[in-house]
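User: Run a structure prediction on this.
Assistant: Running it now.
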Amino acid sequence: MKILNRYLGAAVAGSTLVVMLVLLALFFFLDFVDEFGDIGKGNYGVPQALQYILFSQPRRIYELFPLAALLGSLIGLGWLAGNSELVVMRAAGVSVAQITLAVMRVGLGLVLVVVFLGEVIAPPAELYAQSNRSIALSDRIALKTNYGFWTRDGLSFINIRTILPGERLGDIYIYEFDAQHQLRVATYAQKAYFEDDRWILQNITQSDIDPGGVHTRHIGRAAWESLLSPDLINVVAIKPEKLSTWELRKYINYLHDNGQSAQRYELAFWIKLTTPLVTAVMIFLAIPFVFGPLRSAAMGQRIVVGSLVGIGFHLFNQTFNQMGLIYNLSPLLSVLTPLTVFFITALVLTWRIR
């Protein structure tokens, strides 16, 4: 049985790898076309666009893997079915449950590799790609680090540690220099929000520096006129789905501590946490299609059906997630409902196999 497990695993893993490479090539081209609108802005050219897309590939692999696993399982098992190898296996006494277990086992191994890629490799690669893209697009952004981003506004240098949803900022540091490049004013604001074409700073601590010493004062609220616009903030902001699960958890806690709504980030957190389960369901869903209605179908038919199932799940999932945000449903419920529907569908179809 070990030899058979390895044989089934190799067929599914090989097909999944080929499908992933095809999907990556397709989305690489689509992403490059999508960047055409920004090429030519600032210092953002074709090399910068290619670099940005290349470093975004680990995240893309993580996103596409459930679909690739479904198509790979359909193609790999379909190839064996087309050669009557699955018929021979069943005639030799190998049950559908044993074949399913062998496929799920190799799927688990692939999931572990992809989760490592999505949680460990993708976030820093995405941060690096986004940082270089932001700097190239806007000459006012000097540097973006794990501690926020730096930008220049005239003789002032600004460091923003946290970008909150709804055109809000957290932990803003403003350093004002004179014409002789001497630091004159250092300002820290705990929060800021954009209103009437200007920023409103809150909970401010400001220090004036002159030859006589440093004079500090505390201000509850003040307007801040700056060239730093919400549009520029959006350029450097990392979207929730591009953060790691750990980073999302920390950011959700930060939003809760500051009285901000974290529903969008909680949704992204549960989506990432349940991605391995989604992949497992997609692989499991391939089993009844191979042994059931598609057992005599051509390879092209299997690919079409697998694509439709994967796209159907994605659309249903996205629709239900957005409905959850609109109607203020539990993020966990919004994520688990589509997953449960497809899992029950796979169970029913598998039960009906004869």
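The first strand starts at residue 141 and ends at 145.
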